[in-house]
Amino acid sequence: ETGVTQSPTHLIKTRGQQVTLRCSSQSGHNTVSWYQQALGQGPQFIFQYYREEENGRGNFPPRFSGLQFPNYSSELNVNALELDDSALYLCASSPPGLTGELFFGEGSRLTVL
Amino acid sequence: DAKTTQPNSMESNEEEPVHLPCNHSTISGTDYIHWYRQLPSQGPEYVIHGLTSNVNNRMASLAIAEDRKSSTLILHRATLRDAAVYYCIRNSDDKIIFGKGTRLHILP
Fold it and tell me: Which residues of B touch A102 (CB under 8 A)?
């Protein structure tokens, strides 16, 4: 069984640029959540997608957007990058039903210069 | 807002039990309590979750107070590989919201 995979693992951007991060969910999982983790902090909830629809959002501005595809993979897009966007971006998938168990990928580390 | 309170850090000796406390005094009747941990340079890992009754699995035990305002994660025999940040989470509306967690140090 393939776990959650994210790409790229590391990337560097400059202020004002745009970035797309990708996530392949674990087989059979129809819900994907995205988190931002700054150095030394806990993961902050960005949003969650269920069956291609956003069904929950944390305290992040609209320049953070996402997509979920029919195969349940997902993208996180961030426009107009700011220095404070430098962080580890984590994707997690979860299976149908209220099991409450999230399966996380290893993350994409974004550095904004 | 994570709405849980945990100590910033704890220490334990290897091969001894560890009790990690969590307060969630404003928990509602339908909120599950989840625990995740994050090892260095890895994504968070699910540990255990429960609603009212105590729960056991291969990784740990979860003891939930009768009034559900607090819970304790129990690692029965800590190893060096258990050194991690442990997050106690209230699952409200099926969303996992992390707090700052407890950094657990294991002493050899």
Answer: 36, 44, 46, 96
